[in-house]
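seq/struct pair 1
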Amino acid sequence: MQVKMNVIVAAAAALVAGSLQAQELVVKIGHVGPTSGGIAHLGKDNENGARMAIDELNAKGVMIGGKKAKFELLAEDDAGDPKQGTAAAQKLVDSKVAGVVGHLNSGTSIPASTRPRTSPPS
């Protein structure tokens, strides 16, 4: 769990290092895993672990660039399905998350990681 929290903090710091204009930085962290279907219990456990890490970070009052960071978890269900996993990954990219905890299994991780992901300019 400590490794995941360190990864989340590092990703957040890298993403928001240049944007210091807000008093409170909102850092979006994605989670994607099977929260429905045959292995939903594994995905739900994984998501709950990510939520606990986010809650711990927010309770510590982490500062990034002199600003208080507020971490938010955006969770998506891939149902263990490659097509749904790819769609979930794209949704998180479009939401501009700083990092992602997931996918849970290679059947969704590989397809979701091989498709180019770019968000249209805002």
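seq/struct pair 2
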Amino acid sequence: MSDHSTPGRVLVIIPTYNEAGNLERIVGRVRAATPAVEVLVADDNSPDGTGAIADTLAGNDAQVHVMHRAAKEGLGAAYLAGFRWGLDHGYDVLVEMDADGSHSPEQLPSLLAALGEADMVKGSRWMKGGSVVNWDKKRELLSRGANIWIQAAMDLPVHDATGGYNVFTADILRRIDLDDVASRGYTFQVDMTRRVLEAGGVVAEVPIEFCEREVGESKMSGDIIREAMIRTARWGVERRGEELTHVAGQIAGSVAPLVDKIKAARANAQ
């Protein structure tokens, strides 16, 4: 873990697809809550004019930038493109934030402060102090159940592996092979968490209040849920296989000297 007592240059990446009703408000809240940070809107060629709104915001504020992408390729692809842009432009900290207002910009200072002890900070709905607003019981049970499944299958030491309000240091992102990340949708958040841990990074969690969007439609779908179940199960099997291989190697290493001693004793007896 590096010394992150001073965050340095911070870039908030906001992926968008048909977020015309939300974008101006969320960017304004980010700029008001954390005036020193900069914003990158990564728009997937939204047909509702979100890209044009982003261009207007950038034209009026030098700390707002826009990345126009050719087509809708999913949340993970948009964030990866944003990470590369941020790293290429020398930012020290990169933040994932939804465009719909579900991630409160006013809570960002708390997440940034936690970088003093971590390489990645997750805004957690399911730890003590965290909460969700305007969710029905079915959706809450689905999210809680998914995180219990992930903890059991993958042994990830976090409360909210699927949460999308995340902060990364540039250093840890450079230690991850971003070209190897193929996850789409919300599985991307699980994938990035496990990769940070595998790279030797420290992951911290900060409780957040997650508010359901008021404008527009949720991007959650059955395909995203199926992808999450399949991928996390596979990652869990791979991890258990690596652990068993490691244990087997340790056992073999400890047994080998004993076998050698037995062979030597037999030879001397003869």
